[in-house]
Amino acid sequence: MKRFRVTVEGKTYEVLVEAVDEAEGGATPATVARPRPAVSPGPGEAQPAESVKAAAELDRPAVAGAVPSPLSGKVVAVAVTVGSAVTVGTEIATIEAMKMNTHIFAPTAGRVAAIFVKPGDGVEEGTALLQIE
Which of 114, 59, 73, 72 is nearest to 92 (CA)? Predict the structure, then answer.
């Protein structure tokens, strides 16, 4: 067992963590590939079924320039609108998970071509939030 000190919202806790090894008969964590939900194309765009399937198999959003959600949670705010110019690091959305807000930032510069979510929507990890062209 290892002892760790963790601080959450200014409160410090001491926790004991036990490593479970295969030799002890326990299970070791395995990496599981999660299927990503198919992303609907933006207005006026047709998305061939083959490309949606291929993108899902590659574990990435089906729409080019899509910004995926880094975690599962509820969309609290979308900070941009369609047509907004963004630079790398511009805040684009906020997602709440486990009573904590996570701010999502633009990974690339460009214009917001489509927004796929709205405040109140539940999203899974990897769900496309918006598209930047």
Answer: 114
